[in-house]
Write a structure and sequence with these properties.
mainly alpha; 96 residues; rod-shaped
C-alpha cells in the first residue's frame, strides 16, 4: 500500500537524516504487516463465529423440537427415547 513511500524514504539522496528515514520506513512496513495480520485474524474469527452461530441455531432448534413433543402422561415428560434421539442428532451435527 505504501511501497512507493517506503522506497522513497530508503532511497532519499540526502543522507543527513538517513536513520530517521530508515526508521520511518521500518515502522511503516511494520504497520502494514500488523494490519495484514489483523485482517487475516479478523476473517478467521468471523468465519469461526459464523460456524458457532450455525451450531447454536441447530441446537436451539433441537431443544424446541424436544419441547414441542407430546408429554407422556405416565411420566409427565416427552418420550425419552425420542428426546435422546433428537439431542444426539443435533450434537452429532455440531461435532460433525
Amino acid at each position: 500500500m505504501t511501497d512507493d513511500l517506503v522506497a522513497r524514504l530508503r532511497d532519499f539522496p540526502v543522507r543527513d537524516c538517513c536513520s530517521q528515514r530508515a526508521e520511518a520506513a521500518d515502522r511503516i512496513e511494520q504497520l502494514e504487516s500488523e494490519v495484514s495480520y489483523a485482517n487475516v485474524s479478523y476473517r478467521s474469527l468471523v468465519k469461526e463465529f459464523g460456524e458457532y452461530i450455525t451450531d447454536m441455531e441447530k441446537m436451539r432448534a433441537a431443544l424446541k423440537k424436544i419441547a414441542a413433543m407430546k408429554t407422556d402422561p405416565e411420566f409427565g415428560t416427552p418420550p425419552i427415547d425420542s428426546a435422546i434421539e433428537v439431542a444426539r442428532a443435533a450434537l452429532e451435527q455440531k461435532n460433525g
